[in-house]
Structures
1.
Amino acid sequence: MSKMHITTSINGDTTEFLAEADQTLLSALRDNLRLTGTKEGCGSGDCGACSVRVDGRVVCSCLMLAPEAQDRAIETIEGMADGDNLHPVQRRFLEEAALQCGFCTPGFLIAARDLLDRNPNPTETEIRFWLAGNLCRCTGYDKIVRAVQKAAEDVRG
Amino acid sequence: MQYSAPETIESALKLLESDDDARVMAGGTDLIVQMTSGMRSPSHVVDIKRIPELCGVVQTADGGWKIGAAVPGAELNEHVELKRDWPGFVEATDLIGSMQVQGRATPVGNLCNASPAGDAVPGMVAAGATVTVAGSNGFRDVAAHDVPAAPGRTNLEKNEFVIAVNLPPKPPNSGDAYLRFIPRTEMDIAVVGTGVFLAFGESGHVREARIALGAIAPTVVFCTEAADALIGSRLEEEAIEAAVLAARNACNPIDDKRGTAEFRVHTVGVLIKRSIAIATQRAKRQVGMD
Ligand SMILES: Cc1cc2nc3c(=O)[nH]c(=O)nc-3n(C[C@H](O)[C@H](O)[C@H](O)COP(=O)(O)OP(=O)(O)OC[C@H]3O[C@@H](n4cnc5c(N)ncnc54)[C@H](O)[C@@H]3O)c2cc1C
Ligand code: FES
Ligand code: FES
């Protein structure tokens, strides 16, 4: 089976790559495009480490086929900071020590930024529900929730 | 494996006809997991998300709703009018997975995956949904509860696929509700799920009722016996107890790590009562009856 030629937008840049039809977007990002910020925890939709935004919606890139990316707009963690300027949610994760090993962090950041884009004033319950698809095995969720609350304050200005 | 994303229903049908091992994909949240775990290996995945007719939610001339088979849960949950008419169905769909899963998962995929525990299914059946099926002979409408045949298998013909879920116009003084029991508070698979729809007459008696039970039999149970026990009543205790008994009698559950058969039968009764209460409250709130 010959590979498929996919043209897509990744973090605003038109990107072309070759993919197997049954390859996941996660694998294409990491293995073909070397965008390794997006992580693979479970490969089955449970952990959220592979979260990316596709046409404005956060999805698990392990539950999307690479050829589906054709003509879509993909946003990964690599596009979150503006040069050296971290996004508020990234800065607050650092300041609030909301990470230990950091493996889950890109997924949490993608999901948390999406929440704040939609609702800059979420309640704690809303934050916890929104992040229910992201698992962290070391930091514990309280620090993460606190970092998102602080970032929300920053976003509201 | 081959991947195609046709842009018309006709070309999707042709692709399905051309390959016996082809499989339709909507959100892929079941299918891709099944593929990566080696449970299924279709030779051709036909992605239906690029067919424009399948990507929208429209209100029909009679006041019902036509929900395209490619519309994910997140979009339904943002649809204010649909949610106002059929909150139980929308909430049932919204229970599927995380926000990431909601960005992709469709109620039709939930139905066609034919898991006994699919959450959108009892919600859809209680709402009185049909699905429109496209095939080589044209289109046909099928009651949602007639779609699953057995765990993992549907009654659709090999080359057919669902293009839409149709919800009827919501009658006056009516409400629907779906509840499930899971051992955790989020992100788990239903041990029992109950969908209830009630419509009340002028004098406050139940004019119309539908009850659907999930995860207590190989396929969803559309329990007319339980609904009949409520129709004509004013939801007196005896009527509700009769509905509970009928629902418990309709159960044919298994024991598994999530719950014993006995626990499931018991829980069906508890959840039906609570679902009836929510559906009633929703019906009455509309007319300010209490
Ligand atoms: C982390 C996680 C959590 C989950 N949690 C839940 C949960 O809480 N409750 C629950 O019920 N489910 C849950 N699921 C399962 C899954 O998300 C749902 O069943 C979802 O509704 C499937 O929809 P889909 O569009 O992704 O289907 P797909 O994966 O695209 O398809 C599922 C099946 O249906 C067939 N199919 C799809 N569309 C059509 C069509 N239009 N016509 C004919 N056949 C079709 C496919 O061929 C496939 O066999 C979860 C899944 C994950 C990964
Ligand atoms: S790797 Fe995708 S959800 Fe875990
Ligand atoms: S910081 Fe290690 S998994 Fe979350």
2.
Amino acid sequence: MADLTVARALTDALDIALADPAVVLLGEDVGATGGVFRVSDGLREAHGPDRVIDTPVAESGIVGAAFGMAVAGMRPIAEIQFMGFSYPALDQVINHVGRVRNRSRHRFTAPLVIRIPYGAGIGAAEHHSESAEAIYTHIPGLKVVVPSTPHDAKGLLLAAVADDDPVIFLEPIRLYRAVRAEVPEGPFTVPIGAARLVVGGEDVTVVAYGAMVREAEAAAAELAASGTSVEVIDLRSLVPWDVEAVVESVRRTGRAVIVHEAPRTTGFGAEIVATIQEHALYSLRAPIERVTGWDTVVPLRRAEHHYVPTRAAIAAAVVRAMEG
Amino acid sequence: MSAEPQQLLAPDGTLHGDLPLPLGEISRLYRAMVVARVFDGKCSAMQRQGRLATYAPYEGQEAAQIGAASALEASDWLVASYRDAAAMALRGYPWSNLILGRTGDERGGHAPEGVRVLPPSITVGGHMIHAVGIAWAERLKGTDAVALTMFGDGATSEGDFHEAMNFAAVFATPTVFFCQNNGWAISLPTSRQTAAETIADKAVGYGMTGLVVDGNDVLAVHEAVRRAVSTARAGEGPTLIEALTYRIGPHTTTDDPGRYRDPAEVESWRERDPLRRVRRFLETQGAWDEDAQAAAEHDAGLEAEAAVAAAEMVAALDGDEIFSAMYAVPTIHLEEQRARLRRDGR
Ligand SMILES: Cc1ncc(C[n+]2csc(CCOP(=O)(O)OP(=O)(O)O)c2C)c(N)n1
């Protein structure tokens, strides 16, 4: 076991993945600086500049080239600096990465990973706080995962690299260095598609992912003091997501609160709500609450606190759900 | 095709060729460079104190920015990036706005009416084509306004650069592409962005004129851009200008250049400081002295203090206001969300 931050757990996973000669890491500034968040710190020295590749500033190029490498049998890991800079690569992602398997009926595949730091809460410049996961979850052919702990960061990244399909790997910026935890040494994987029970509870199910998991956990702890038993589920994977875990929980609690920092309209929460009502409508004792960001651009530093959901907002939603 | 970069003022302040501008004008440009440097230092200091969010210093690039911006007319447009505050300020974008934006406030992006300067582009590469569209619109409207876009060497690697250059050349839009090749794109040297000998060489592939200018020579930059602007204005199409300069500071205040570049390289560029050579030249012409320098620095300091005070006086956007500029009229969804925030807080 090693005591690691999310950032260091990712470094560890990358280091292990790079032991396979089919794996390369490519992106802007991933080499000499170890990337904007220092996730690839030391990896160029360890694996060489041909395996930890500093690219020109060109996201479509990074993803398109990674796609080509993947088609040719490699397992590239592409890094985009911030989610707001992943958009120039969307044509590659939508039209090629997510489709080549179907287009060639399994003859060609794209087992690449695209790592994207995402999310608000650090008072960053415009485009540096995006939560556009719903764009990616809406693209057929991709898997989308979002770890929220050092353990899952490592295990999911190794699972993503091993996966035979393209995986969008979202890294919550706020969590890179905010939490430390024991992480097993050496290779292990966390299955893609399996949620994690964060805390068990009986009255309300709170479903969250990414940086919102910690907020949900804190809200649950506060509410426990006042006698409300909150179950918190960390989705960890958005495509595919663990419908069974969520539905089973809601059948027991009869109440659900969905949390994400992305804009509300057509956010991933809407998908969860729709699925819950398909499977557990008659178990519901209250309308499902959504705690989300607003349908706005994430405000810049001085007003960002009006945007990002807080533990208080989650707790308030739980109370509303309890009141039915 | 690469020739020596065009130069008028040698690093020691010697003028080669004819004076491109009257001495009074050159003093004015120099004063603007002093102001720009003072603001840059002020902003870096404010960031360290936590008063600004991230900041991208432009120290060393003052001649490129002031030289280019000074070659535009009031009716011309400037479409620049996060490192181009000196150019934007010279075009009338208030320093207080530039600072306000960097404190993390959207209203920094609201330039006064009549100032034809877009808010700085934070995404790399996406804005160059905007200068093509703007210039094109001006031509369609029958004006003779020109649009100049500023970008870094790294930005020329983005696909959008290609599309912008191609459109501009095909439609002969009155656009000037001004690349500040400052040697680095975060941790990557220019040699890792392009295998071309110069960025200006790229113009050839688009059927456009490309040229390299000494970016630390404000007179050479001004002259090169002035010519490109008048070519564009005359309807003779776009030009790509590569200004060779250097980013003396870190990429942003969160970057550590010690991880990727040799301090000796920085020192060698300090020797070619863009301010020093104009000052030396003006001094040899009897147009500048210690007193003028002291006065210019004093005035710049006051201007900076006033701009900072104005920016910091602005109260942060309240919860209601974060919804108010998404559409001309907020949608019902936004109104509902605004009411929710008002009722429940966050
Ligand atoms: C589309 C996009 N990709 C990546 C980034 C992150 N980024 C910010 S500045 C920069 C380097 C740009 O270098 P250059 O164009 O040479 O300009 P300079 O910063 O040197 O002025 C990068 C990669 C971004 N802002 N936008």
